[in-house]
Amino acid sequence: MKTLRIGVAGLGRAFALMAPAFRDPRVELVAAADPRAEACQRFKQDYAGKTFTSVEELCADPAVDVVYVATPHELHAAHARSACSRKKHVLVEKPMALSLAECRAMVDAARENGVQLLVGHSHSFDVPVLRTRELIQSGAYGPARMITALDFTDWVYRPRRPEEFRAAVQNQAAHQVDITRLFAGGRVRSVRAFTGSFDPQRSADAAWSCQLRFDNGVFASLVYSGYAHFDSDEFMGWIGEMGQKKDPAAHGGMRAALRGDELAVKNARNYGGANFTQADAVAHQHFGVFIVSCERADLRPLPNGVMIYADGDKRLEPLPAPTIPRVEVIDELYAAVVGGQAPLHDGAWAMATLQVCLALLDSARSGKEVLL
To answer: How far apart are CA 192 and CA 211, in angstroms?
Structure first.
């Protein structure tokens, strides 16, 4: 079995959340690049890999087959292009980039250099989501007609760099849009949205209500708030986004910690920091409530399976708990690089998701429906 040797560009929060998936025997972490000495030291201890202070050095390492780009959003395009230019396959965190022009440049760079470009993790990789999609595609419950998504989190009050607030929609709506597009099975043709920024001290478009219309007649409603008041994990059996058991009383608890040096708090929580912890997953990850209304049933992915509300029948189709969180990303990456299979979450897919996210912002600011 061929082992894919992965170099990590950026040892921050995204890497910490993805790290358990790299325990899969089909991949090996061999190198990393990060400006934080404590993160590089922890990487050497955990993986016995090489470390670099620049992504360009990492991309030049002949021992690396795939570069996992987990740097800040605004650097994704440059770092992905750098990896492609060195004939490295690329797995880049969502959002793929912050503009469609950057996305096109990344897609072009991958094509011109003959390498694979995948975008993830987004929660459209989650097993209950994929199983719900299979149920829709089976035709057993008729075609999908309407999709409802709702998520209330504490995103605004997690430690942030200022740049993160400017890309709140691209960061968080990417999950909802990705999942909704998978379920709908068509192309988004129109977007009508409203956004809210409810804390002047932490200005961000971190709440929205959005309507999508697809070319196959499916319509969807996406609602999100990151303001740490109501917690929609109450609807998920108090299983958190990462599949961990959750203490309801802890919701919004980061507010107090943010009164000090926020960057220091962020670095302490990140990989290699003094307060870094890896939560144990007891169930599948999720991104809040999704209900797919088909002609003959409503389908609802849950952390432990898929609820099916059919004509005269209500039941849970259970799914076993994951042994390796986010291994579905490795499945798709390995199939693309080693098996030559076209990935679902490729550059074109992620660019279409970003287009919807940008249209959400455009609609909210213009007060008009945006046609794609």
So the answer is: 5
Structural contact between residues 274 and 268, judged by C-beta atoms closer than 8 angstroms: yes
Cβ atoms of 117 and 168 within 8 Å: the answer is no
C-alpha 365 chain-centroid distance: 25
Q: Do residues 110 and 84 touch, judged by C-beta distance below 8 A?
A: yes
CA distance 188 to 276: 39
Categorize the per-residue pLDDT at 253 as very low, low, confident or very high, splitting at 50, 70 and 90. confident
**pLDDT tens per residue across span 268-293:** 888 888 888 877 899 999 999 999 99
Beta strands in the chain (DSSP E): 4-9, 27-33, 50-52, 66-69, 89-92, 117-119, 144-152, 188-196, 207-214, 219-225, 289-294, 297-302, 305-310, 313-318, 370-371
Give the CB-side neighbour count of residue 236, counting CA atoms within 13 A. Answer: 34
Report the amino acid identity of residue 98: L
Could you give the CA distance from residue 282 to residue 104 in angstroms, rounded to a whole number? 38
Query: Do 187 and 212 meet the contact criterion of CB atoms below 8 Å apart?
Result: no
The CA-atom distances, in angstroms, between 354 and each of 35, 119, 177, 349 are 28, 11, 9, 9
DSSP string covering 234-283: GGGTTB-TTS-B--GGGTTTHHHHTTS-HHHHHHHHSTTSTT---PPPSS
**Cα distance between residue 33 and residue 51, in whole Å:** 6
Whole-angstrom distance, CA of residue 148 vs CA of residue 219: 9
Find residue 292's DSSP bridge partners.
147, 299
CA–CA distance, 29 with 143 (Å, rounded to integer):
42
Tell me the C-alpha distance between 330 and 278, whole Å. Answer: 19
CA pair distance 55, 40, nearest whole angstrom: 13
Across the range 301-326, mean pLDDT stands at: 96
Backbone angles phi, psi at 154, to 5 degrees: -115, 30
Question: Is the full-model pTM beyond 0.90?
Answer: yes
Q: Residue 198, SS3?
A: coil
